[in-house]
Amino acid sequence: MERFQAPVSREELLERAQRLAGRDVAWVAERTGHFVPENLKRHKGWLGELVESVLGATAGSRAEPDFPDLGIELKTIPVDAGGKPRESTYVCVAPIDGSLAASWDDAWVRRKLSSVLWVPIVSDKETPLAQRCFGRPLLWSPNPTEEAALRADWEVLSEMIHSGSFWMIRAQHGEVLQLRPKAANARDWEWALDEDGEWAQTTPLGFYLRATFTRSVLARHYRLR
DNA sequence: GACTGATCATGG
DNA sequence: CCATGATCAGTC
Question: How far apart are CA A96 and CA A93, in angstroms?
Fold first, then answer.
């Protein structure tokens, strides 16, 4: 694999990402020396890792922004031909062992989302992975409305976790941010304090952004272009 | 078609 | 082991 140095500024990062626009996956994979899998079924994170590689992200799987010096998180996002996100976006784990932040200001979710480089990839079932094209990237920070919505959801969801009401946690909670299982499979579990203050086994959870939210984020970008 | 619970691979 | 990278796939 060719090694790509980390960008030294947000401008450089954005320029690099902009140079991907219009290129397809095969083109990027060739530059980085990656083999393109047939599909993503057994390689769900492959595309994200490919883009990390070509843009010089360094954090790997550590709990840090992808570009630690810039404080920027990288997210590839599958979009349809109209530029609309097709999937929800995983943000980070939701600690249920009591280590979840007490306030939104200290929440890892907030830090993760404070500055995100969205890299859209136009994908539909008919197009082979290698031929899927990159769209125009967006370096985004939540506007006050978006931040307020995220915060409101986080406060509701974190209250469920803090109170130990795991039985009531469902993906339906949250307008823009939701909690969903984040595990190898349904048999996975971890310890958490339940409503009675007893340690109990429950499903590992992650915070996700609803596709409706990222749709509005990207739509605002295209409109203001 | 959107939503939600389930799942797969990788690297430090 | 655990967080990262996410998409899959059945159901509503």
Answer: 9
